[in-house]
Amino acid sequence: MPSITEAELTRAIERTLVSRGKIPEPEARPVARMVLGYFGADDSVLDNKLSSEDRDRFYQLEEEGLLTSEEEDATVSRGKTWRIHYWLLKKARIRDVGQTGDAPPKDDAESVYRSIGEAAWQRRADAPPPPGA
Known about the structure:
By secondary structure, the chain is α+β, with helices and mostly antiparallel strands. It has a single domain, classed as Arc Repressor Mutant, subunit A. Helices cover about 40% and strands about 15% of the residues. The protein contains five helices and three strands. The protein has helices spanning about 5-20, 30-40, 50-65, 90-100, 110-115; strands spanning about 45, 65-75, 80-90. Strand 2 and strand 3 (about 80-90) form a beta hairpin. Helix 1 packs across helix 4. The mean pLDDT is about 85.
């Protein structure tokens, strides 16, 4: 599958992390650049190459389904086993999210509260008590 472009990843970040309020919109492009800076032309990157701050951002992107992490065991000298953690771009998901015109659905509770008119939220001292009170 062809490489992910900065524009594709930026759009996917805008439609996931930004639309859910997890990062401000001006951070979308710098985050995309940071991620692609680690991956380069590869499809995977070793976890131990990440700074702790960048790793936190990778975990956020994993929660949104844009990245995934895997691990494998490797036998090294004297029979020792090392566990190697690495990250993978989920190219199909990034492209799917970046190409769809709709932002991900918002929290259902939020939409219910927003659908209630402003008048319903006003309390009046002269209002009759609610039924059964």
